[in-house]
C-alpha cells in the first residue's frame, strides 16, 4: 500500500515472550498466564512518524508450528501464520472464535 504512494515501509517489529493476560487468554482459548509470543509492530513509512502500533499474541502451539513468528520479526505475521500453520487463508486455527464467547 505504501508503494502506491511512493513511500517505503520502515516498520519496526519487536518480539518477546510473556504471560497471557486474562483478556488475551480468553481470545486465544488458553489459560491466563500461559506463555505467549508477543509481536509489537511500530508501523511507519521511511522518514515519517509512526502511524500506528499493532500488537499480536500467539500461543506457543502456533509458534511451534511456525517458529519464524518468533525469530523473523521482519516477516509479516499474517503471512507466517496463515500460510505456515494452516496452509491457506481460509481455514481457521484450532479453537478459533471470532470474539470471546462466540463460536
Could you name the key traits of this structure?
27% strand; alpha+beta; single chain; elongated; 103 residues; 3 strands
Structure description:
13% of the residues are buried. This protein has 103 residues and is an alpha+beta fold. The chain has one domain (2-84). A hairpin with a 5-residue loop joins β2 and β3 (50-59). The longest helix has 8 residues, at 77-84. The model is unreliable at 84-92 (pLDDT under 50). The radius of gyration is 15 Å and the shape is elongated. The chain has helices spanning 22-28, 60-65, 68-71, 77-84, and strands at 12-19, 35-44, 50-59. The chain has four helices and three strands, in the order βαββααα. The chain has a three-stranded antiparallel sheet. Helices cover 24% and strands 27% of the residues.
What does this entry show, briefly?
With 103 residues, this protein is of the alpha+beta class. Helix content is 24%, strand content 27%. The chain is built from four helices and three strands; from the N terminus they run βαββααα.
Sheet with most strands:
3 strands, antiparallel
Strand proportion: 25-35%
Summarize the helix and strand pattern as letters.
EHEEHHH
Quote the distance from N terminus to C terminus: 32 Å
Low-confidence stretches: 84-92
Estimated structural class: alpha+beta
**Total of DSSP H or I helical runs spanning 4+ residues:** 4
Strand order in the sheet with the most strands: 1-2-3
- Which outline best applies? elongated
Question: What's the domain count?
Answer: 1
Estimated radius of gyration: 15 Å
Q: What is the share of helical residues? A: 10-25%
Amino acid at each position: 500500500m505504501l508503494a502506491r504512494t511512493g513511500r517505503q515501509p520502515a516498520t519496526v517489529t519487536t518480539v518477546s515472550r510473556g504471560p497471557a493476560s486474562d483478556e488475551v487468554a480468553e481470545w486465544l482459548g488458553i489459560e491466563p498466564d500461559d506463555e505467549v509470543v508477543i509481536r509489537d509492530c511500530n508501523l511507519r513509512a521511511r522518514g515519517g512518524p509512526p502511524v500506528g502500533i499493532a500488537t499480536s499474541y500467539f500461543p506457543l502451539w502456533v509458534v511451534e508450528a511456525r517458529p519464524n513468528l518468533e525469530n523473523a520479526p521482519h516477516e509479516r505475521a499474517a503471512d507466517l501464520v496463515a500460510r505456515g500453520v494452516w496452509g491457506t487463508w481460509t481455514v481457521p486455527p484450532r479453537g478459533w472464535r471470532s470474539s470471546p464467547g462466540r463460536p
